[in-house]
Amino acid sequence: MLIIGIAGGTGSGKTTVVDRIIQALPPGEVNVLPQDSYYKDLSYLPLEERQKINFDEPQSIEWSLLVQQLARLNDGETIEMPTYSYLTCTRQKETITVEPRDVVIVEGILVLCDPVLRDMMDIKCFVDADADERLIRVISRDCIERGRTPQMVIDRYERVLKPMHCQYIEPSKRFADLIIPQGGTNKVAIGLLTDFIEARLRRAKACK
Questions:
Q1: Is residue 156 within 8 Å of residue 86, measured between CB atoms?
Q2: Is residue 151 a contact partner of residue 96, using CB atoms and an 8 Å limit?
Q3: Would you give per-residue pLDDT tens digits along the chain (208 residues)?
């Protein structure tokens, strides 16, 4: 199994890069483990307290569960991936069945911050984008998908997203094997990445 880590700031285009990789490879060959599925369960806190939690720092993620489930996939086992609700800030009862595949992508803003998870990755990528482009995407996404107003998004960006990006996400770029500027629009970088993945898969299959 080939494990790929794709990190980058909020709104940088990580999801688009992941989609491009999936489209370039044969159907059913890729599974994705989103970092967002592994936020710690905060159901024991009142809703007002949950909404104050900083979700952009490493402590918000249950890394041990993510590492454990990734290791199980690598061993050929099927897992039940958790799901998370941004509306209630709680882990849901529903899980998603994930079976082993030739390629597993671990995607999220902080996935290059955890040293144990990082060491499990065969390829580490960082999707880069200008701060103003990321903010525009975040405003559009959060207003549509998460019921926030533009002012709420801007306030959160200034209070949380920007400082956490500078403190944790941007520094993790130094661990990347490949930096993808301009996100999903960078066809050359994505092409190089998918070519590398295909070459590794061919090599692995030839050795079996």
A1: no
A2: no
A3: 999 999 999 888 899 999 999 998 888 899 999 999 999 988 888 877 877 778 889 999 999 999 999 999 999 999 999 999 877 888 999 999 999 999 999 999 999 999 999 999 999 999 998 888 887 787 877 777 676 787 887 888 888 889 999 999 999 999 999 999 987 788 899 999 999 999 888 887 777 6
Token pair in block for residue 7 = 């990190």
- Of 136, 29, 45, 126, the closest CA to residue 89 belongs to 45
Cα separation of 15 and 7, whole Å? Answer: 10
CA-CA distances (angstroms) from residue 1 to 98, 137, 142, 202? 14, 32, 34, 12
Structure token digits, residue 111 = 């996935």
Q: Which two tokens stand for residue 143?
A: 């207003």
Count of other CB atoms within 10 angstroms of residue 139: 19
Place of tokens 């595949």: 101
Q: Residue 31 in 3-state DSSP?
A: strand
CA distance 26 to 96: 21
pTM to 2 decimal places: 0.89
The CA R_g of the chain, rounded to the nearest whole Å, is: 17
